[in-house]
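Slide 14.
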Amino acid sequence: MANIDHKPSKYMLNLLHVLPPFVDEEKGIVNAIMEVSTGSINKYELITESGQLKLDRVGYSSLSYPFTYGAIPMTWDYDGDPLDVEIVNITEPLVAGCLVEARIIGVMKFIDGGEVDDKIIAVLKDDKRSDHIKSIDDLGDYFKTETRYFWENVKALKKAGTGKVEEFYGPEEAIKVIKECAEKYQKEYAPKLD
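Slide 15: predicted structure.
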């Protein structure tokens, strides 16, 4: 699955910095490291410097993640973190910290506390239950309604009005966002690596 172009090491590799964002750009397949599983109210986050998973916060309400959530390696979004990815149409919860290959179906443009914090939307590459899903439009209108509600309300008890969903777009726009964040990673974050 993950063909890591790195010599064997006795030290743990930080997958955020050794795996490319795309497994197969032409087919819209990306690497994704899972942080939060569907149904959780706990927000886990990968520590960018080390790659370990950390409990970022316990949810401020009973509002749980309606999708599995993670990060795309070797990307850098405008919020100062790796680019986020939502994996939808999951049948069985995924283990936090696991690596998956996901097929891009769209992107949600999102502003969080005044910063761009876009969310790539994808399905698992090899799940036959998702073969028919080519775009977020295939998920129906309720998916967009639920996702918008989640992002605009997940932090409402902490500080209302900090999240604003702008629009949903298809796979072509998502690939542009990933490429832009991959370039941003190479310019802004990669030079800091030893």
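Speaker note: The domain at 15-192 is CATH 3.90.80.10 (Inorganic Pyrophosphatase).
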